[in-house]
Design goal:
The structure is a single chain. This protein has two domains: 2-155 and 319-338, Glycogen Phosphorylase B (Rossmann fold); 158-316, 3-Layer(aba) Sandwich (Rossmann fold), CATH 3.40.50.2000. It contains eleven helices and 13 strands. The protein has helices at residues 20-34, 69-81, 122-127, 183-192, 206-213, 230-239, 255-262, 275-278, 291-298, 306-316, 319-338; strands at residues 2-6, 38-42, 52-54, 89-92, 109-113, 133-136, 150-151, 170-174, 196-200, 222-226, 242-245, 267-270, 285-288. The strands form two sheets. It has a seven-stranded parallel beta sheet with strand order 3-2-1-4-5-6-7. The chain has a six-stranded parallel beta sheet with strand order 10-9-8-11-12-13, with helices on both faces. Strand 1, helix 1 and strand 2 (38-42) form a beta-alpha-beta unit. Helix 1 packs across helix 11, helix 4 packs across helix 9 (291-298) and helix 7 (255-262) crosses helix 10 (306-316). The radius of gyration is 20 Å and the shape is globular.
């Protein structure tokens, strides 16, 4: 099977630190190559892969501000579609823009919908609903207006996350510094429990950071670690007593939740979006309905068996399971094309 894997070009694939869609595209590519499939990764020129790299954009536009996103997105996407006939299947991890090329080619396209940035993008998905095969990343993130071939939860490379049975006594917030992710609420929860909090992630909303995060950073009770790479991520997640995930939106997935549990660290999350699909309430963490519930569960964190958190990820969220499910989808699509 010759597969074209289309990754975004905001960041390198795999990302140096932040870049969840690029991360998934990389995990898929490497997993498929390891299974003997012929994969061409369309990504930035500085990307790394054991497959074949096909690149026109030199670097991620979030990493090099001289790169104009729309210009290079057009060059990047058109490059793949102008070579569409070279592939058995195209796997789009680049949101809605590539859909607009699909009426011009005969190669089947599967699109992983990594979340809807706004309801305003739905008309594009609806237009190509019967032309393209859609995969949702959680049942919670499905639109009633679209047809889906399957829900496939993300998997992670569990080897990148060390199990830590004995944590330090701090809470962790790991995610974009943005209202959606609830950094402000994490600070309030930790403060109410008189616990040390470390925050890690890119500042995606500078005004939000300046108003709700920066005034609390004292490098004692509240520490901001910035955006961290894989080694530091592994250490911070593993040594935390719990990950605080007080999301303010219906999150489509949440890779940090899985990565945390892989280290044995339970997650305290607001009960929204995909969280009930990722966390077993009372077993691998707690689903809280509001701030008071979240604060109460911090005192109960010792009830959670950290080894169970790790086993939960090993059973349900490995990259091998994700690859298995995507191969099934590819085969279903190719079989239907042959009919």
């Amino acid at each position: 099977m010759h597969i074209a894997m289309l990754s975004p070009i905001a960041w390198r694939t795999p990302p140096r630190h932040y870049g969840p869609w690029e991360n998934v595209a990389s995990l898929l590519t490497e997993g498929l190559v390891a299974r003997g499939h012929d994969v061409t990764l369309f990504a930035t020129a500085d990307s790394q892969t054991s497959g074949t790299l096909h690149a026109v954009c030199p670097r991620g536009y979030e990493e090099d501000r001289s790169i104009i996103p729309k210009v290079w997105e057009c060059l990047h996407i058109s490059e793949l579609f102008e070579h569409a006939e070279d592939f058995d299947i195209i796997h789009n991890n680049f949101d809605f823009l590539p859909l607009t090329y699909t009426g011009l080619i005969s190669t089947p396209v599967v699109t992983t919908i990594h979340g809807f940035s706004s309801p305003g993008i739905l008309p594009v998905y609806k237009k190509y609903n019967n032309k393209v095969f859609y995969v949702s990343i959680s049942d919670a993130d499905r639109s009633p207006d679209l047809d889906y071939i399957k829900t496939i939860h993300h998997g992670i490379n569990i080897k990148q996350f060390d199990f830590q049975p004995a944590p330090d006594d701090y809470l962790l917030f790991f995610g974009r510094i943005h209202n959606d992710k609830g950094a402000r609420q994490a600070i309030e929860i930790a403060g109410a429990c008189n616990k040390k909090l470390i925050l890690a992630g890119i500042i995606q909303d500078q005004a939000y950071y300046n108003q709700y995060v920066a005034p609390h950073i004292d490098n004692d009770k509240v520490i901001f670690a910035g955006s961290v790479g894989p080694v530091e991520r592994n250490r911070l997640l593993g040594k935390a007593s719990a990950l605080l995930h007080p999301i303010q939106f219906d999150e489509p997935f949440g890779l940090a939740v899985i990565e945390s549990m892989a280290c044995g660290t339970p997650v305290i999350a607001f009960d929204r979006g995909s969280m009930p699909e990722l966390i077993e309430n009372g077993k691998s963490g707690f689903l809280a309905g509001n701030m008071d519930e979240a604060i109460e569960t911090v005192a109960r964190i010792k009830e959670i068996d950290r080894a169970y958190c790790r086993r939960h990820v090993e059973r349900h969220f490995t990259v091998d399971r994700m690859i298995d499910e995507y191969i099934q989808v590819y085969e279903m699509i190719l079989d239907s094309e042959r009919l």
